[in-house]
Amino acid sequence: MMPPIVFTLLQGLFLLLLYIFVARAVRAVIRDVSTAPASNPAPSAPRRASRPAQPAGKPARKGRDDSGPKQERPKRIAPRELVVHSPDGRPRVLPLDGNEITFGRGEQVSVALGDPYTSDRHARVYNDGRRWLVADLGSTNGTFVNQVKVTAPTPIAAGDQLGIGRTVVEVRK
Amino acid sequence: MAKTASAAAARRRANTELGLMVLGLLVVLVAAALVELSQQPDIPEAVLNYGAGFLALSVVAHIAKRRLAPGSDPLILPIAVLLNGLGLVMVRRLDFTGGEQALEFAPSQTVWSAVAVAAFVLTLWFVRDHTSFDDYRYLIGLGSLLLLLTPLLPVIGREINGARIWLSIGGLSFQPVEAVKLGFVIFFASYLAEKRDVLAVATSRLGPIMLPPLRAFAPLVGIWAMGLAVLGLQNDLGPTLLLFGVFIVMLYIGTGRLAYPVVGVLLAAVGAVFAYQSFGHVQNRVSIWLDVWSRYDGDGFQLAQSLFAIGTGGIAGVGLGQGQPGFIPFVRTDFIFSAFGEEAGLLGTTGILLCFVLLIGRGFRIAMRARDEMGALLAVGLTTILALQVFVIVGGATRLIPLTGITLPFVSYGGSSLLSNYVLVALLARVSAPGVPRHTRRRREDDFEDAEDERTAQPSAAGGSS
Predict the structure, then answer these.
(1) Which of A7, A47, A147 is facing B319, going by the closest CB pair?
(2) CA-CA-CA-CA torsion sign (B65, B444, A143, B368)
(3) Which of residues 343-372 of B touch A (CB under 8 A)?
(4) Which of A6, A7, A8, A15 to mutate to probe the B interface, most B CBs <10 Å?
(5) Rounded CA Rg of chain B
(6) Of B16, B447, B462, which has the smallest distance from its Cβ to A28's Cβ?
């Protein structure tokens, strides 16, 4: 028979390797989450955009490192219309003509989205007299402006992208 | 350009999988060496052959997944292989409790692993697109129902240990419920993806809960009644618990109506009271659960031995191959977790549970990122099956809940269970794969291409002006 110490060492090695496996698996999960397109809770909103607001630049892949100091867009152009890109179906153009627009899956909204990732009353776009803002209406999955979650009414400008569930709403001038 | 980018991403995922696979096999190797060396000075040649066979199987599974489902989830297969390997090592270790260096159950479990991996590959091969199940929806549903009832047939049905859930044909025993659970999930997923709008309409309100019309509850009540009937006829709680639980979860995820789980749990409670009063073995299970110690040498022997084993293991376990897990009746199937509790301790069992947590977490993530509702519901259902099984059997073995005999997925001894769980992982892999270029997929692929551009546009816009 082998000396007992060999068994103790092997048992330790077994447990250690088991946890290294778990750690590596967790690392793979984290890497996957941070590089995946669906890194925010509006799962595949960006991947559904069939017309990106900004033309492609060169890849700067690491989602995390480049956030840096947030740059204001050079010029905030007042929005005139919204283009709703549903996950399935044709894009819809909505003029911003002074009336409030509400988005959601329910029936009491001005724009009904057939998108399972939206709430009954999800978000609204309105004018406070000076500018256009977007506000979340207590939705489950949140509302996003350029992939940043909205926590308070947020001004929008032409070129912005609103994420509502899987639906992408493009803001145009 | 997008094509090569997605190919590169797929390769990266496959390499992640390979790395994890190698590590997982290393864990199994060390565990196996420890078990063998603790029992005998030399490792028998047969064991080496079986080990090499298992190694070959994992390589085959990896290559097949790489080829047939490029870009699919890189974690689920390595975790399945690790759990399968650890289970195999423990089954082999328990063979030593039967007598002198006996190879009793391990060879057949290795053969079943081979069959299971073959089924894994074949599933990936035949199911190129999970929505193709839509065409056979009712066939699958009806077939599953009939299959569930086959153990009641006179000649081929078998009653083993009081439960009539076995099918025995030509010496081969099989638990049809293992195939049925996959069939039902496929049927539910396909059915709900189409009917969820109808089932989600709320017409009345009860406090904070919106109630769908009464007839929308018909499928729920139907499955419930069927579950109870099966429970009564087959004398086994496991299938009922599993199928009804999965159904409630899928109904809730599909419709988002809280009314379904609430009504489902109420129905389950009614069913539980009914089952408790009409079936002696259910009463027995509950009373053992409530007070195991006053009857530890009687009908509580099994559970008491399980608790003794886990307690003996302590933090780091007594060492693989060095405990006495053979005292627990049915240790290979229902109580294999307790054997790990004794020999690998809290650390080992926690590691195993973490693997399950990762596997289940990946399953739900696959569901969230599925391309279509059918895929999302399928992934949710399959993952819920795994989660329920782990919870029910680990909870039962640790006396958290009354014991229901169910296998611990991938780990327990049992061919039909292993087979169906590998098919389950293959289906998860299929849902997670970016998809095959079919005519319906063409448009989506273009979307992916845009997504690549889109994603990279944001950072460079922010960084460019600095």
Answers:
(1) A7
(2) negative
(3) 344-345, 347-348, 351-352, 354-355, 358, 361-362, 368-369
(4) A15
(5) 23
(6) B16
The distance from CA B277 to its chain's CA centroid, rounded to whole angstroms, is 30
CB pairs under 8 A between A and B: 159
List the single residue in A7, A50, A74 with the smallest CB-CB distance to B322. Answer: A7
* Domain around B57: 2-464
What is residue B314's three-state secondary structure? coil
Which are the contacts of A79, defined by CB distance < 8 A and separation ≥ 6?
A96, A132, A156, A157, A158, A160, A171, A172, A173
Q: What is the DSSP letter of A64?
A: T
Distance from CA of A61 to the nearest CA of B (A): 6
Spell out which residues of chain A touch residue B79, defining contact as CB-CB under 8 Å. 25
Query: Which of A23-37, A156-170, B15-29 tops mean pLDDT?
Result: B15-29
The pLDDT tens digits for B311-356 are 999 999 999 999 899 888 888 888 999 999 999 999 999 999 999 9
Cβ A47 vs Cβ B451: under 8 Å: yes
CA A31 to chain centre: 18
pTM of this prediction exceeds 0.80: no
Interface of B with A in 383-402 (CB under 8 A): none
Residues of B in contact with A20 (CB under 8 A): 23
pLDDT reading at B153 higher than 90: no
Domains identified in chain B, total number: 1
Q: What is the pLDDT of residues B184-228, one digit of tens each?
A: 999 989 988 888 777 777 777 666 666 777 777 777 777 778 777
Tell me the average pLDDT of chain B: 85
Q: Is A70 in Cβ contact with B347 (below 8 Å)?
A: no
Nearest to A17 by CA among B131, B94, B85: B85
Q: Which two tokens stand for residue B350?
A: 């926690």
Residues B95 and B321: their CA atoms lie apart, in Å, by 10
Phi and psi for A132 in degrees, rounded to 5?
-95, 140
CB contact under 8 A, A46 and B451: yes
Please give the pLDDT value at position A139: 87
> What are the tens digits of pLDDT across the range B13-67?
899 999 999 999 999 999 999 999 988 888 888 889 999 999 999 999 999 999 9
A2 contacts on B by Cβ (under 8 Å): 37-38, 41
In whole angstroms, give the CA distance from residue B461 to residue A67. Answer: 11
Contact between chains at B82 and A14 (C-beta distance less than 8 A): no
Pairing type for strands A148-149 and A154-155 reads unpaired
Structure tokens at B50: 């079986």
